[in-house]
Structure formats: structure tokens, C-alpha cells
Amino acid sequence: MQIITKIEKMQQISDSIKVSRQSIGMVPTMGYLHDGHKSLIKKARENNDIVVVSVFLNPIQFGPDEDFENYPRDLERDAKICEELGADYVFHPDKDDMYPRDFSTFVVPGESMTNVLCGVSRPGHFRGVCTVLTKLFSIVRPDNAYFGEKDIQQLSIVTKLVSDLNLRVNIIGCPIVREEDGLAKSSRNTYLNDEERKAALVLRNSILEGKKLIDSGEMDTEVILKSIVNFINEEPLAKIDYVEIVDFDTFEKIEKIKDNTIIAMAVYIGKTRLIDNILVRI
Ligand code: AMP
């Protein structure tokens, strides 16, 4: 496995892979890999000739008060994980090469996709995500790219990006990987102290509480939301950013549960903002 840091070098490698008609599976990440990332890499490995994992902490998707500086980094460990899982390349470009001083072109997703859920409290976040992915796809030219359903809004926006801009890559969503007790795996879980780690279970457990109501026949989203919010508010370390029940395809809020509904939330546990969701099928 090779670690590639230069954009031109990655482009040359991709060009020669294309010439040899091999398929490229790509897993875009911000690094500090965990089992969630690993599941994507394994899926890419199963279904492609060549696997490229990008490890790039994308500064333009972080807001000014967010955790860009403190975000955990460990390229050596990431590279070892990628190698063990059979990846062929780790692409780790320099941020000044990705965004030279005169960089001025951005890819902005439609407002209807960003004025809900994470887009509200993270203005500019999905513009940063769409811009970096357009660049990464252009450099690596993957046939398939793998994304986690944990970042469900990102998955939906990237699917739209690729469709709207006719990018020649299949976007493949993969299920959320969780800790044994149900907490969704996240690089940000490393910020949690012991007490916060226990409190963080409130995300998953409140979603399951809502799901239980739905399974018992409750279809009124206001009632379900109220129950979820009350459940979270009982945890003193938790502060809700948002809890929403929306249509999976349009992200519009809905009044009655139907097939393809997502319950999605972002909750601060102490200073750490965590997200989780569930796709409800009826
Ligand atoms: P990140 O490094 O946080 O940008 O994540 C890179 C990719 O891994 C994204 O497509 C995420 O949705 C995915 N991912 C992160 N955590 C998980 C998880 N717990 N289960 C599945 N996929 C995940």
C-alpha cells in the first residue's frame, strides 16, 4: 500500500488504473479511522479492483467555532488500518495544495437540502463537503464511493451532487456501525470523558424510544418528537441541537409517520456534538 500526498501523483496513478480498465472504489474520510470507516473500506475492497482511502481533514467544512484544530489525527495508525484491510492507496493531500491561496471556486448544494437538520447549525458545512468531494472525485476518478448512513444528510446531498453535476461515480450508502452499547462510532467519541460517554447513550436510546412508539402504532410525529425530546432532557449532560422527523427523500418535516422516514438528531454531550439517526420503514 502506498501513501500518496501529491495531487498530481494521485492523478497519474488513477489515470493508469483507468487505462488498465480496473475499477476504483474510494472511501473519503477525515481520518482517525474506527470500525465505521473500516466497514466502508471492507465494502470497497469486496467490490473493486483498486481501493483508495482519502484521509483529509477538510478545513472548509468546519465553522469558525468548531473543532478543526482539536480534531484527532494519526496518519500512521490510519495507514496501518488501511493496509490491514487491503487498501491499495491512502490519499493524504496537503491542505495548502487542495486550497492554494487563490482558491475561489465552491460547490454549493441547494438550500432545500441544507436549511434543515445539520445544515441549520453548521452553515457552510455542506458547501465545504460538496467542494472537497468534487475535488477528490475529480482527482481519484472512482467508479464507486462509499459513505456511512450515520451522516445521512451528507449521503443524500452527495447523491444529489453527483446526479446534478453528472459526476461518473456511484454513491453507495453503508449502515451505521455502533459500539456494543449502541453508541454510533465516531472519531468525536474520543472527546468524551467517562461520564459523558455514558450520557451519550441518550441519543440511541431516545431514538429507540421513538421507534417503540411507532411500532406500537403511534404515527403522529409531534407526539413522537415530544417523547424523544423529554427522554433526552432527562439527561443533565445533554443539550439538544435538533431532533427532527423528516421524509428521507425530500428532508421535509412530516406530520404522520410513513415509509422512508428518518428520525435524526444532533445532541451536545458536554461540548461534544454527536449525531445519530434511524431510517423508519413501514
Ligand atoms: P468522517 O471521517 O467522519 O468524515 O467519516 C468518513 C465516512 O465514514 C463518512 O461517509 C461517514 O458517514 C462514515 N462513518 C462515520 N462513522 C460511521 C459509523 N459509525 N458507521 C458507518 N459509517 C460511518
Describe, in plain words, how this protein is organized in 3D.
The chain has about 280 residues and is an alpha/beta fold. It has 2 domains: about 1-175, 3-Layer(aba) Sandwich (Rossmann fold), CATH 3.40.50.620; about 185-275, 2-Layer Sandwich (Pantoate--beta-alanine Ligase, Chain: A,domain 2), CATH 3.30.1300. It has helices at about 5-20, 35-45, 75-85, 95-100, 110-115, 120, 125-140, 150-165, 195-200, 200-215, 220-235; strands spanning about 1-5, 25-30, 50-55, 90, 145-150, 170-175, 240-245, 260-270, 270-280. The strands form 2 sheets. A 6-stranded parallel sheet has the order 1-4-3-2-5-6, with helices on both faces. A hairpin with a 2-residue loop joins β8 (about 260-270) and β9. The longest helix is centred in the middle third of the chain and has 16 residues, at about 125-140. The mean pLDDT is about 95. Adenosine monophosphate binds near residues 29, 39, 150 and 177.
Index terms:
282 residues, alpha/beta, Rossmann fold, Pantoate--beta-alanine Ligase, Chain: A,domain 2, six-stranded parallel β-sheet, three-stranded antiparallel β-sheet, 9 strands, 20% strand, binds adenosine monophosphate
How would the blueprint of this fold be written?
Elements: E1 2-4, H1 7-19, E2 24-29, H2 35-47, E3 50-55, H3 75-84, E4 89-91, H4 95-98, H5 111-114, H6 118-121, H7 125-140, E5 144-148, H8 152-164, E6 170-174, H9 194-199, H10 201-215, H11 221-233, E7 238-247, E8 261-269, E9 272-280
Parallel strand pairs: 1-4, 2-3, 2-5, 3-4, 5-6
Antiparallel strand pairs: 7-8, 8-9
Helix pairs in contact: 7-8, 10-11
The structure holds adenosine monophosphate (AMP).
